[in-house]
């Protein structure tokens, strides 16, 4: 955690700090559930139904305060059954994640990653009129899959900043401050846009939502951008589409088997790859941590949890 979050956690709650940055092992998660009243968990800590079952009747923990808005690594139903509440940190991550989506869009469209690799390798011979020609993003058509806080922040930037036409896929119509069209289905949305941006939560409902059929519907000039969760995109199908040139390119901040990134994906020039930087800004990570601690503070005071997550 950032220094201010660590300091508050120790001062206000007498927190024990785990120094390793790798995800907790199954044994560590079971021990944490058995030995602590509250566990501040993070993205890679896979609190599955099996973990809760293995902890058995010895679970002392009453709150999993998740550090992040996404909670697909926690089995919410299993947590509830074990008497463990789960909270997250929505809102704090919205703008930073939207900014990364625009970063990926621009880098992919303008071949920025490819250009930097050429320059750093000493292979750039100077400007000429048809070198590294990319796609002009202004005025293009964006399709946002998932029009929640982050999806709306992405669309807002695209409309007001780049004059882009906005379409989206969501369960219901959204009231927005800019013109946008709700698509009938994912395949028809994929078929008509220049940029298909994935901004849905992870989990069973969205697993491989972007599959071979969706990628086949996209135009050869279109780009896929994923800032959601890696498993939302069927990675093997995406690699095949990129290798065949069926789509112009992709920009990814998350991966299906993170942190493993396939060599076939890394070998492609028409994909921009970032190491899960969505919320990687000092202020944002601090705000996330403070929000997680606010949830813990409410729990300790016996108050309603500000950001309680419930099973659907």
TrEMBL record:
Belongs to the D-isomer specific 2-hydroxyacid dehydrogenase family. Keywords: NAD, Oxidoreductase. GO terms for molecular function: glyoxylate reductase (NADPH) activity; hydroxypyruvate reductase [NAD(P)H] activity; NAD binding. This is D-glycerate dehydrogenase. The keyword Lipoprotein does not apply. One of its GO terms (cellular component) is cytosol. Residues 19-309 form the D-isomer specific 2-hydroxyacid dehydrogenase catalytic domain. It comes from Tritonibacter aquimaris. It holds the Pfam family 2-Hacid_dh. Residues 102-278 form the D-isomer specific 2-hydroxyacid dehydrogenase NAD-binding domain.
